[in-house]
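Quick one, tokens below:
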């Protein structure tokens, strides 16, 4: 939560850039909390989170990104999620199938 709060600070672009890189460097440990938070974020922060998730090569992000690419209210978030999916070599074609595939990974 503290890193996400820092990511939302518009008054300190240097800190935002550092937090962004730190989250990318954290990799898998950052992916799950970010995907969980994605739906409840303002558009600007959601765009940033999509970009971060696109830089973390971890397939558990795909369902949340696919959901955002299909269902986000703001076009900018849908676009950012689609770009992140492209970076992960995935698509938003079937959100339910993406969540099912994620669940199957746990068995």
């Amino acid at each position: 939560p503290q890193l996400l709060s820092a990511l939302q600070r518009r008054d300190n672009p240097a800190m935002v850039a550092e937090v962004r890189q730190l989250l990318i460097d954290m990799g898998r440990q950052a992916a799950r909390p970010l995907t969980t938070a994605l739906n409840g974020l303002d558009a600007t922060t959601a765009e940033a989170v999509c970009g971060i998730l696109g830089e973390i090569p971890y397939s558990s992000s795909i369902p949340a990104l696919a959901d955002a690419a299909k269902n986000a209210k703001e076009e900018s978030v849908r676009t950012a999620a689609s770009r992140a999916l492209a970076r992960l070599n995935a698509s938003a074609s079937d959100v339910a199938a993406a969540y099912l595939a994620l669940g199957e990974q746990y068995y």
